[in-house]
Amino acid sequence: MSAKSFAVLSLLAMLVHMAIAGCTSELRNFMYLTGQHPAMPVHLVEQQCITHLALAFMPSGVFNRDSQSDVNGSPLDWPLFRSIEFTRPLVNAETKLLVAIGGWGDTAGFAEGALTEGSRQRFAGNVAAMVAATGADGVDIDWEYPGGNGEDYKQVPNAERAWETAAYPLLLAAIRRALGPSKILSAAVPGRPEDMLAFTASTVPAIMRSVDFLNVMTYDLMNRRDTVTAHHSSVQNSLAAVDAYMAAGCDAQHINFGLAFYVRYYKTEHNDCAERRLQNGSAIGCRTLLMEDPETGADLGRAGAFSWHDSVPGYLESSFDKALAQGTFDKESGGYYYWDEDEDLWWSFDTVDAIANEKIPRILQERKLGGVFAWGLGEDGPKFQHFSAMSRAWKKVKDDGRGASNHVASSTARDEL
After folding, report:
1. How many CB atoms are located within 10 Å of the residue 165 CB?
2. 216 beta partners
3. What is the CB neighbour count within 10 angstroms for residue 278?
4. CB proximity list for 248: less than 8 A, separation 6 or greater
5. Contacting residues for 108 by C-beta, under 8 A, at least 6 apart
6. What confidence tens digit (pLDDT) does each residue in 18-29 have?
7. pLDDT of residue 219
8. Residue among 84, 393, 403 nearest 259 (CA)
9. Residue 399 β-bridge partners
10. What is the pLDDT of residues 320-363, one digit of tens each?
11. Domains of the chain (ranges plus CATH)?
């Protein structure tokens, strides 16, 4: 980005700083900012309500190197799409800036780092060195599936990863010691109970002695391993996820629940879905086509996703238009959905109304959680309607002291494009 563009962004951010009122709070409003969609709504006052912003991702493997200098003695770079220095002027002065390490599919670097006491100390020391070099306020550890069920679960069976369950809290403890008490250490963790292999009543108390809070990924709760239609991010399943962590020993105040600023779709088996809708009034629970290779786990191209920032793929435009215009909010489970019988497509995503009037009140407020987060900020551009609705609803919960909430937004799904 040019110096002129940066100056314009900084000026916009400064003007919004001057307009802000009452966004500072212990209640967390956490955002991931990704290299795939790095746009920020610097023109919106809601951006100044972000309490934590994590730049995603720095690969885990770089923290296993033995030296931070090259053969000539020059410092090695810390690979990140945007610097902390660049980002700092664009957010509230009290916003904490983190570096997110890892991400979906990034497991090998963590496994190497967690293996022994020596490797854990090396990994943790490198994390601390990176934080010092970049000026970050802390790190978010995105080793999303320690113990198994990650992207490579067909290539590396869970039995071969069982040791990671005990090693994971030890790695976090080593990172905490290296960072010291003043830096933030958070972790992104699975939202499906069947994936919480490393998060049990015997491990969660040890994990929570090191981390400040967990970002529970209450999305992708239907994925390509499933065989029947469901909501990928419903109120009911989100509550089940956060309740599982609380039952395992995590206090509600140390949990952020997650929102997805993207749309998911899945190919379905026509006859079964038509019959189920005829019998039950909806196609919820009907059969999908096989979505991943049973031998390799490879994606068979029968499920997908795109963010609100992305252009809708041409072959999906007509069906998605129908999903926006004709979709239904399932009051029982708390998820927006649509089954397109012509294209045999199942759609699942959050609307502005669902976020503001269902998910924030029924999850953040009723469970008295410590915060909410979203993947990811730029994914909601260029209109940033879901982010704005989320932040306004978050602010209302904060201002009410988690008291009774009122409806704060209203729109049709079509308005969100």
Report:
1. 18
2. 189, 257
3. 9
4. 196, 199, 200, 201, 203, 204
5. 60, 61
6. 444 456 558 999
7. 98
8. 393
9. none
10. 999 999 999 999 999 999 999 999 999 999 999 999 999 999 99
11. 3-260+352-416 (3.20.20.80)
